Amino acid sequence: MTILSGPDCTTMGEVRAGVDQLDRELVALLARRFAYMDAAARIKPERGHVRDEARKAEVIANARAEATRLGVPEEVVGALWEQLVEASIAYELAAFDRR
């Protein structure tokens, strides 16, 4: 089945196929992001260096700015990135503890 862009969809089947494909791509991107968390846990000298509130704020602000640039709701993206960054911190702490 050919995956259409959102504006080109004319049936719910096409919409669902597009969403399912996009979800697979997003999970693959998340796997790449978590690989960076593994690297950070390996590189940082102390567990106390994992949480960096200034960097967290910067990452969320960057995501919100990109959302605005792309015309998607920045509040939604900000909330998603808040959860993503917190999950990444938790993952990195666990990775740090495993090493």
From TrEMBL:
SUPFAM superfamilies: Chorismate mutase II. SMART domains: CM_2. Gene3D superfamilies: Chorismate mutase. Substrate binds at R16, R33, K44, E92. Its EC number is 5.4.99.5. One of its GO terms (biological process) is salicylic acid biosynthetic process. InterPro entries: Chorismate_II_sf, Chorismate_mutase-related, CM_dom_sf, CM_II_prokaryot, Isochorismate_pyruvate-lyase. GO terms for molecular function: carbon-oxygen lyase activity; chorismate mutase activity. Pfam families: CM_2. Keywords: Isomerase. This is chorismate mutase.
